[in-house]
Design a protein that fits this description.
The protein is an alpha/beta fold and 228 residues long. It is built from 6 helices and 13 strands. Strands 5-4-1-6-11-8-12 form a 7-stranded mixed β-sheet, with helices on both faces. Strands 2-3 form a two-stranded antiparallel sheet. Strands 7-13 form a two-stranded antiparallel ribbon. Helix 2 links the parallel strand 4 and strand 5. The protein is globular. The chain starts with a strand and ends with a helix.
């Protein structure tokens, strides 16, 4: 089973400043290893070696140094952060078949072969991997009709499906891409409006958006305990 993975490592990392003023957030160590390295090694361990890393010019040398041991990685370089859609459009000439998308600052565990099988079975244009195992960063208060507190949950799991920044897409999905737009906020809604088959693959594993210090701490603790 073959699949080309487009790994998005661009962005400004504003939520993780000032650290991201000197380091790309995808290269910040989680349990002693850069987030991007965890993801690349997981993909390759499952037998997928066709990787395209979409990064910005300012981070080119840092990424190429980190992955200097892996000659199978191709690089698509944008001159400045262009958003999720923009980074893929820069690499458009490398899209010629069903492809996988993975953000390099979102950590979870997933069986890619099962995701691919699900996508093919549904004949989907896009399949996104979702989970409910995301812990809210705040406490939740439950009230009765009188305003009396009936229970209090400190940072409970969110009982809604959230996208884990992993997706499979058919080449025709690129027709819905436009520079300056976002995949989740713009491209996917446009596909749904015209009735394109967009599916969700339920992958109920813990998910961490390593985009700020709070989420990084949670990811670091989880990976030290479960993958260290």
């Amino acid at each position: 089973m073959s699949m080309r993975f487009f790994l998005l490592g661009g962005g400004r990392g504003t939520r993780f400043q000032p650290l991201t003023l000197v380091m790309n957030k995808c290269l910040i160590p989680v349990a002693g290893k850069p987030a991007a390295r965890w993801i690349v090694e997981d993909i390759m361990a499952q037998g997928f070696n066709d990787l395209v890393m979409c990064i910005n010019r300012k981070d080119e040398q840092a990424f190429k140094y980190e992955f200097r041991d892996l000659t199978n990685i191709k690089y698509s370089i944008s001159e400045e952060p262009l958003g999720t859609v923009g980074e893929l459009l820069v690499a458009k000439n490398l899209i010629d078949d069903t492809f996988a998308l993975r953000y390099l600052d979102d950590l979870t565990e997933i069986n890619y072969k099962k995701l691919i099988d699900f996508h093919k079975k549904k004949h989907a244009v896009v399949t996104i991997a979702v989970t409910r195992k995301m812990r809210l960063p705040v406490g939740v208060v439950n009230l009765d009709d009188e305003g009396k507190i009936t229970s209090f949950s400190e940072k409970p799991l969110l009982d809604k499906y959230v996208w884990t920044a992993i997706a499979l897409l058919e080449p025709k999905a690129v027709a819905y891409f436009k520079f300056g737009e976002d995949i989740a906020a713009h491209a996917l809604p446009k596909m749904l409006e015209v009735g394109e088959p967009v599916y969700a693959y339920i992958n109920d594993e813990p998910w961490f958006d390593v985009g700020n210090i709070e989420h990084w701490k949670n990811a670091d603790a989880y990976f030290r305990k479960n993958r260290g």
